[in-house]
Amino acid sequence: MTVSLEFESKLWEMADKLRGNIQPSDYKTVILGLIFLKYISDSFEEKHSALVAEGEGFEEEQDAYVEENIFFVPAIARWDFIKKNAKQSTIGQTIDDAMIAIEKENKNLKGVLPKNFARPDLDKTKLGELIDLFSFNLGNKKAKAQDLLGRVYEYFLGKFGSSEGEFYTPPSIVKLLVGMIEPFKGRVYDPCCGSGGMFVQSQRFVEEHQGRKDEIHIFGQEYTATTWRLCKMNLAIRGIDGDLGERDADTFGNDLHKNLRADFVLANPPFNVSDYALLQDDARWKYGIPPANNANYAWIEHIISKLSPTGVAGFVLANGSMSTSTKAEAEIRKNIIEAGLVDCIIAMPPNLFYNVTIPVCLWFISTKRKNRKDKILFVDARKMGYMETRKHRELKDEEIKQIFDTYHNWRDDKAEYEDVQGFCKAANIEEVRGHEYILTPGRYVGIEEVEDDGEPFDEKMTRLTGELGEMFVKSHKLEDEIRQRLGAIGYEL
User: Fold this and answer.
1) Is 437 exposed, middle or buried (0-12, 13-18, 19+ CB in 10 A)?
2) CATH topology of domain 5-161
3) How confident is the model at residue 137 (pLDDT cuts 50, 70, 90)?
4) Which CATH number fits domain 165-445: 3.40.50.150, 3.40.30.10, 3.40.50.12160, 3.90.190.20?
5) pTM here?
6) Nearest Cα to Cα of residue 401 among 373, 418, 387, 381
């Protein structure tokens, strides 16, 4: 069985009707909380049936589930019980009670699950209809093999991203970041982890390359309470064990992982934050004190401070970070370049994010650049991608592969790497100094060569000027016609 995009969109359409006057931050936890409840109930029921068939009487023993990384679901939280009560006016309280019971039985979920289904502004009739819609199996072995839960969950996160977007990094960017730094084994850290997309994609990368997911260790921090809970749920349903701290917290003002040195850092920090906890004497500001009115360079220095001696980081920033001339930021940029930390810069096309059109860039920082400390790879990907909708752009898989293959060939000093005018350039440090440490790829890669069409210059100019003359004639005719029509109704130009 495969959940089609059509079905997912119908599911979203129904869920969207439930919104009413609920705040978006509460609404998304209601919907994704319901998906979470359905998933763990399906996983539990499959194991429960197997234990009943064995006839040993262990079907209500919690240890029989925990040892297989399955959440124990009490009777009042099982989907059959929820569905039987779906048409009752008390269905909201029934779900809240279910969430409380699950947290009581599974300590690692304490304080994580949403318990706001009984609220008066949540339409209980629509809630019951939505429960009926969740009739497909999300958590049995067959569904897990096809990652139905992942597809539905990511589809919903994407849709929430298109309406809010403050915590959702588009999958194509996440896939590119992960493909670039290749987190096979070690500690993976995200200082602003949102709903956990970087972690999920890291695990997927490891599995696709025949690695062991238990060989990557997840560390994260998230400032917004509802998003922190979403991340906890997202990791839980994937079976990913991650340290996100005891609760939500501000990375700058309350670093929950002070002693962490990560092998990999993946991040999409909030752009151009103008109000953050800037501590002047913070040890993280090794390369200069970032300005108080923009956190971009505070994020860069925080990320560098978290890298192990052989660590690598990939993160998203606003384009202004590559060329800002603000004294403090320019000085920090110069210092980290001279320290040999900047590995690669990629200029991305606009419209990749759901809620902003601002073009972004990807930074790659590495502390293990012994053979390439005097070079930086620049990639101009601004022309890549296609408009999936009128407002949203997606990158193609082959474009993503082209970018990280280019980086890997350069990084590993393979013969396959070569500069491509208009696309990529391995610039030496002297050239970067000559551009006053500005890191905009367009300054280095040049303009893409246009293939000669074979038409002689004089003939081409004669043809083009002829076409332009015809356009001028047409424009004059249109102008005369407009003047006549305006004159006919009493308006003269």
Assistant:
1) buried
2) Ferritin (1.20.1260)
3) low
4) 3.40.50.150
5) 0.76
6) 381
